[in-house]
Protein backbone atom coordinates (compact mmCIF):
# COMPACT_ATOMS: atom_id res chain seq x y z
CA UNK A 1 0.00 0.00 0.00
CA UNK A 2 1.43 3.38 -0.97
CA UNK A 3 0.14 6.96 -0.89
CA UNK A 4 0.82 9.06 -3.98
CA UNK A 5 -0.07 12.54 -5.13
CA UNK A 6 -2.56 12.00 -7.94
CA UNK A 7 -1.83 13.42 -11.38
CA UNK A 8 -4.51 14.99 -13.56
CA UNK A 9 -4.81 11.84 -15.68
CA UNK A 10 -5.73 9.90 -12.50
CA UNK A 11 -8.48 12.26 -11.31
CA UNK A 12 -11.32 10.67 -13.30
CA UNK A 13 -10.64 7.30 -11.65
CA UNK A 14 -10.46 9.01 -8.24
CA UNK A 15 -13.78 10.79 -8.79
CA UNK A 16 -15.40 7.52 -9.88
CA UNK A 17 -14.30 5.96 -6.57
CA UNK A 18 -15.57 9.00 -4.62
CA UNK A 19 -18.97 8.88 -6.34
CA UNK A 20 -19.35 5.11 -5.79
CA UNK A 21 -18.54 5.37 -2.09
CA UNK A 22 -20.64 8.53 -1.68
CA UNK A 23 -23.70 6.84 -3.19
CA UNK A 24 -23.39 3.84 -0.89
CA UNK A 25 -22.49 5.46 2.42
CA UNK A 26 -23.26 9.19 2.25
CA UNK A 27 -26.24 9.67 -0.06
CA UNK A 28 -28.71 7.91 2.29
CA UNK A 29 -28.18 10.80 4.76
CA UNK A 30 -28.73 13.52 2.13
CA UNK A 31 -31.73 15.04 0.40
CA UNK A 32 -31.99 15.02 -3.41
CA UNK A 33 -30.74 18.62 -3.30
CA UNK A 34 -27.71 17.59 -1.24
CA UNK A 35 -26.84 14.71 -3.56
CA UNK A 36 -27.09 17.02 -6.59
CA UNK A 37 -24.98 19.67 -4.83
CA UNK A 38 -22.24 17.11 -4.11
CA UNK A 39 -22.40 15.81 -7.68
CA UNK A 40 -21.89 19.37 -8.97
CA UNK A 41 -19.01 19.97 -6.54
CA UNK A 42 -17.16 16.91 -7.78
CA UNK A 43 -17.73 17.38 -11.49
CA UNK A 44 -14.58 16.51 -13.43
CA UNK A 45 -14.21 19.87 -15.22
CA UNK A 46 -14.69 21.84 -12.00
CA UNK A 47 -12.17 19.68 -10.13
CA UNK A 48 -9.55 19.91 -12.90
CA UNK A 49 -9.98 23.69 -13.01
CA UNK A 50 -9.41 23.90 -9.23
CA UNK A 51 -6.33 21.64 -9.49
CA UNK A 52 -4.93 23.83 -12.27
CA UNK A 53 -5.43 26.92 -10.09
CA UNK A 54 -3.69 25.25 -7.14
CA UNK A 55 -6.89 25.29 -5.07
CA UNK A 56 -7.29 21.50 -4.73
CA UNK A 57 -4.77 18.72 -4.08
CA UNK A 58 -5.47 14.98 -4.38
CA UNK A 59 -3.68 11.94 -2.97
CA UNK A 60 -4.58 8.33 -3.49
CA UNK A 61 -3.83 5.05 -1.82
CA UNK A 62 -2.66 2.41 -4.28
CA UNK A 63 -2.71 -1.28 -3.46
CA UNK A 64 -1.36 -3.55 -6.20
CA UNK A 65 -2.17 -1.02 -8.93
CA UNK A 66 -5.71 -0.44 -7.62
CA UNK A 67 -6.86 2.91 -6.26
CA UNK A 68 -8.36 2.07 -2.86
CA UNK A 69 -8.83 5.49 -1.27
CA UNK A 70 -8.70 9.21 -1.99
CA UNK A 71 -8.15 12.35 0.06
CA UNK A 72 -8.41 15.89 -1.29
CA UNK A 73 -7.71 19.22 0.32
CA UNK A 74 -8.89 22.68 -0.51
CA UNK A 75 -5.77 24.71 0.02
CA UNK A 76 -3.31 22.99 2.31
CA UNK A 77 -5.33 22.24 5.42
CA UNK A 78 -9.04 21.78 4.66
CA UNK A 79 -10.05 18.21 3.84
CA UNK A 80 -12.88 18.30 1.31
CA UNK A 81 -12.93 14.59 0.36
CA UNK A 82 -11.88 11.42 2.15
CA UNK A 83 -13.27 8.24 0.64
CA UNK A 84 -12.14 4.61 0.85
CA UNK A 85 -13.47 1.80 -1.33
CA UNK A 86 -15.82 -0.46 0.67
CA UNK A 87 -13.60 -3.52 0.11
CA UNK A 88 -10.76 -1.73 1.91
CA UNK A 89 -12.55 -0.28 4.95
CA UNK A 90 -10.92 -0.80 8.36
CA UNK A 91 -7.41 -1.34 6.97
CA UNK A 92 -5.88 2.00 7.98
CA UNK A 93 -6.20 3.60 4.55
CA UNK A 94 -8.08 6.68 5.78
CA UNK A 95 -5.50 7.13 8.53
CA UNK A 96 -2.59 6.81 6.07
CA UNK A 97 -4.20 9.33 3.71
CA UNK A 98 -4.83 11.70 6.63
CA UNK A 99 -1.23 11.30 7.87
CA UNK A 100 -0.03 12.42 4.42
CA UNK A 101 -2.05 15.63 4.70
CA UNK A 102 -1.01 16.07 8.34
CA UNK A 103 2.69 15.71 7.46
CA UNK A 104 2.32 18.28 4.70
CA UNK A 105 0.63 20.73 7.08
CA UNK A 106 3.20 20.17 9.84
CA UNK A 107 5.99 21.02 7.40
CA UNK A 108 4.46 24.48 7.01
CA UNK A 109 4.99 26.23 10.35
CA UNK A 110 2.18 28.77 9.87
CA UNK A 111 -0.53 26.07 9.78
CA UNK A 112 -1.92 25.28 13.24
CA UNK A 113 -4.88 23.05 12.41
CA UNK A 114 -6.62 20.92 9.81
CA UNK A 115 -10.33 21.38 9.20
CA UNK A 116 -13.09 19.30 7.68
CA UNK A 117 -16.84 19.53 7.25
CA UNK A 118 -17.70 15.94 8.11
CA UNK A 119 -20.69 14.14 6.69
CA UNK A 120 -22.88 12.35 9.25
CA UNK A 121 -21.42 9.00 8.14
CA UNK A 122 -17.78 10.03 8.68
CA UNK A 123 -18.03 11.76 12.07
CA UNK A 124 -16.77 8.74 14.01
CA UNK A 125 -13.91 8.23 11.54
CA UNK A 126 -12.75 11.81 12.08
CA UNK A 127 -13.15 11.52 15.86
CA UNK A 128 -11.00 8.39 15.70
CA UNK A 129 -8.34 10.37 13.78
CA UNK A 130 -8.31 13.00 16.55
CA UNK A 131 -10.66 15.66 15.19
CA UNK A 132 -13.04 17.50 17.51
CA UNK A 133 -16.33 19.14 16.62
CA UNK A 134 -15.96 22.91 16.25
CA UNK A 135 -19.68 23.60 15.75
CA UNK A 136 -23.01 21.77 15.62
CA UNK A 137 -24.31 20.00 12.53
CA UNK A 138 -25.27 22.33 9.71
CA UNK A 139 -27.19 22.01 6.46
CA UNK A 140 -26.22 24.12 3.46
CA UNK A 141 -27.91 23.49 0.11
CA UNK A 142 -28.93 20.03 1.31
CA UNK A 143 -25.40 19.08 2.41
CA UNK A 144 -25.36 17.96 6.06
CA UNK A 145 -22.04 18.42 7.82
CA UNK A 146 -20.41 18.97 11.18
CA UNK A 147 -17.44 21.38 11.17
CA UNK A 148 -14.43 19.76 12.83
CA UNK A 149 -10.82 20.65 13.55
CA UNK A 150 -7.57 18.79 14.24
CA UNK A 151 -5.00 20.75 16.24
CA UNK A 152 -1.43 20.27 15.03
CA UNK A 153 1.29 19.99 17.65
Automatic annotation (TrEMBL):
Q: Which CDD domains match?
A: NAT_SF (cd04301)
Q: Which residues cross the membrane?
A: none
Residues annotated as domain N-acetyltransferase: 1-153
Spell out the InterPro entries in the cross-references.
Acyl_CoA_acyltransferase (IPR016181), GNAT_dom (IPR000182), N-acetyltrans/Recomb-assoc (IPR052564)
Q: Domain of life here? A: Bacteria
* Pfam families xref list: Acetyltransf_10 (PF13673)
What is the protein's name according to its record? GNAT family N-acetyltransferase
The source organism is Clostridium oceanicum
Amino acid sequence: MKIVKLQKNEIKNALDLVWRVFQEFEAPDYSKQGIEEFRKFMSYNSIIEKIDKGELYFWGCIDTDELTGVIATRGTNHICMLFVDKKYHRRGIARNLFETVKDRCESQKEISNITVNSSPYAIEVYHHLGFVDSDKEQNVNGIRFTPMSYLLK
